[in-house]
Structure formats: structure tokens, C-alpha cells
Amino acid sequence: MLETGQKVGKYEIIGRLGEGGTGRVYLARDCTLLRLAAVKQMRGEYEERVLLETGFLRDLRHPMLPVVYDLLREKDWYLAMEYVEGISLHNYIKKTGPVGEEIGRIWAESLLSILEYLHNRKPPVIYRDLKPENIMVCQDKSLRLVDFGAACLKDFGEDTDRGMALTRGYGAPEQQAVTGRPVYADERSDIYAFGRVLYYMLTGANPGEPPYGSLPVSAYNPLLGKAIERVIEKCTRENPLERYQIAGEIRQDLSQKSRGSRRDKRKAFVRHVEKRVWLTEKVTAGL
């Protein structure tokens, strides 16, 4: 573990930002260019992964991705990159609650933009671990995608990597090690995770915890349109063949506005609240 004031090359450590499966991330000061940077210290067993992650980020150019500054080798490998100031989407939703449909659609469009960019590379890049902890909400409310430690180039055959990155509630079924079934990830796996992230944005309910995303978004907020609910449902189907096959298909469906007047939605919301009050009273009366 690095201490405050310790140096890695020209980077002076200010403090720790977080820790993931492949290493720790620190806030540092570039003592030459006088700018902040994020320095990722890779664990020894992930030396090959840091080289892959550096290769991915070095060749990618997108507004939602951090810029790579340096790759350093001392006792461990260190990856220095642009410091993205903000709060993780996970913590943002925990702090402020679920976002409304308008913001949800804007953020969904941002995530679809980066997924299309990655999936249209030659060969395609599969992110494999899209989740709220890897998405930063910046001060201007724009989103940035961080941590490419799990990303890979698309494998057109079976994946023998039984240790594939998987976050409960967000990882697609085909990424899970099940006896007699190959483990793999492709564009549709990222689409599954996108649907789960959108679900979390709109409901505040973590699909990795009970009831594990089994309730429709309308159960949390009846004012949400049916169109966005249908998009989430199709993204997160168990069978990859039944999901959207490319991100562009999602964008097309998200552009459709839900039918029904705002008045009808408000009536549905009132009925929803009345039902919850009735259930609460009934439970209390039985105590």
C-alpha cells in the first residue's frame, strides 16, 4: 500500500481513491506537469492484465474515457491516467435517490454511445463489467467510464477464462461458470449489464440484492414510461438471442415516447400510493 507523500516516478501520492479486483487506485500529483492524476497500483498476479488495460486505453479516444499518461514499473506495475473528478454512479444514487426518466434517458444515451464505440472497434472491445461503481458522475452531471481491468477483445470461440469478471446483479448469465456450459462474453453481455445499470438509475434498487431486479421499474415509480420499461426488460433477458443484439437497436426503441397522458400516469401513481398505504395499515392492524 502506498502512503501519502510517497512517490512513484514523477507522481506524488495524495491519498487513496478506491480499490478493485486488480489493484488500488490513488490520487496523485504530477510533479512535472503540475496536474492531478489517478495512479493504479496493480497486484503482482495481474501484471499481464495491466499491460492489456494500458493497451486498450492507449488506443481508445472517446469523451467518456480517461486519457492514459504513463505506465511505470517499480516494485509493482503502475498505470497513471487522467483523474476523473466526481462520484461513482453507485454512490450518487445512494446519496440522491433514483433519477427521473428525463435524466435516465440522457445518461442511457451516453452509455450507449460508449458501448457502440467499443463494440464497433476492429476487433470489438467487450467491457465485461459495466456497473455503477465503474461509472463516474462528474460535476456537470456528465458520465465517464473508468476501470478497464476486465475488458477484453472479442473472442469468437469459447472462453476458457473461468475467472471472468462478474458482479452480482449486473453480470450476464453467460458470464457465470455453470457446469456443462461455456463461459463467454460478447456485445450482448454488455447490453445485459447496461439494462441493469439503467434499472438501478431509475429505481435505486440494487439488482444484486433482494428482490434481485425481479420487479419492473413501474413497481417503484408508475410515472415511468412503458417504453423504457420494455427496453430494460429486453436488455436483461436470460437468453442472449432474445436481447437486443447491438446497442443501436436500444437507441431506436428509447427514442419512442410512451403512450398515455401525464394525467393517466398521475392516476396510476395515486393508485400505487393508495395501495401501499392500505397494505401498511393492514400489516399494522395485524400486529
What form results from the Cα inertia axes?
globular
Radius of gyration: 21 Å
Instruction: Estimate the helix proportion, in percent.
Output: 25-40%
Total beta-strand segments:
11
Q: N-to-C SSE series?
A: EEEEHEEEHHEEEEHHHH
Q: Hey, roughly how much beta strand do the residues contain? A: 15-25%
Secondary structure class reads alpha+beta
Question: Which sequence of strands runs across the widest sheet?
Answer: 1-2-3-4-6-5
Total helical elements: 7
Notes on the protein architecture:
The protein has 287 residues and is of the alpha+beta class. It is 35% helix and 18% strand. It is built from seven helices and eleven strands. The protein has helices at residues 47-59, 89-96, 101-119, 187-203, 226-235, 247-254, 262-286, and strands spanning 7-8, 11-19, 23-30, 35-42, 68-73, 77-82, 87-88, 125-126, 135-137, 143-145, 152-153. The strands form three sheets. A six-stranded antiparallel sheet has the order 1-2-3-4-6-5, covered by helices on one side. Strand 9 (135-137) and strand 10 (143-145) form a beta hairpin. Helix 3 packs antiparallel against helix 6. It is globular, with a radius of gyration of 21 Å. The model is unreliable at 156-160 (pLDDT under 50).
Produce a short descriptive summary.
With 287 residues, this protein is an alpha+beta fold. The protein has helices spanning 47-59, 89-96, 101-119, 187-203, 226-235, 247-254, 262-286; strands spanning 7-8, 11-19, 23-30, 35-42, 68-73, 77-82, 87-88, 125-126, 135-137, 143-145, 152-153.
